[in-house]
């Protein structure tokens, strides 16, 4: 799987509407990131300083942020992805047609092969 392969798949999709079949391996991934530097760069500085205004959270003492953490976890288990997609996209028409009226072939993207 390379950026070129993905670009080819997605450029084909831009030119016509098709149903996409996406197969993924069973996978679990977790990541975490300290958002403090990013938030400060975006201008959220007061919350990290002595002049932070969190009186509605804790009116009796001074409170400020020392850090902010973002954590994300992705779990794809056997059979789970297909059921989630079918529930979420029940309204999507299975046979999307081209402007000429003929059915377009499915785009199949398999990412479930062992490395």
UniProtKB/TrEMBL annotation:
Keywords linked to the UniProt accession: Protease inhibitor, Serine protease inhibitor
Domain Serpin span(s) in chain numbering: 1-115
GO MF: serine-type endopeptidase inhibitor activity
InterPro entries: Serpin_dom, Serpin_sf, Serpin_sf_1, Serpin_sf_2
Presence of keyword 4Fe-4S: no
Lineage: Eukaryota, Metazoa, Ecdysozoa, Arthropoda, Chelicerata
Protein's name according to its UniProt entry: Serine protease inhibitor
The species this protein was found in: Amblyomma americanum (Lone star tick)
Keyword Nucleus: no
């Amino acid at each position: 799987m390379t950026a070129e392969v993905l670009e080819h798949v997605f450029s084909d999709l831009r030119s016509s509407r098709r149903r996409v079949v996406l197969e993924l391996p069973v996978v679990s991934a977790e990541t975490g990131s300290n958002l403090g530097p990013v938030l400060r760069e975006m201008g959220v500085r007061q919350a990290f300083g002595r002049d932070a205004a969190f009186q509605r959270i804790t009116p009796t003492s001074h409170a400020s942020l020392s850090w902010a953490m973002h954590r994300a976890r992705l779990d794809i288990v056997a059979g789970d992805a297909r059921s989630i997609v079918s529930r979420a996209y029940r309204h999507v028409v299975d046979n999307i047609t081209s402007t000429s009226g003929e059915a377009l072939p499915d785009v199949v993207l398999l990412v479930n092969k062992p490395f």
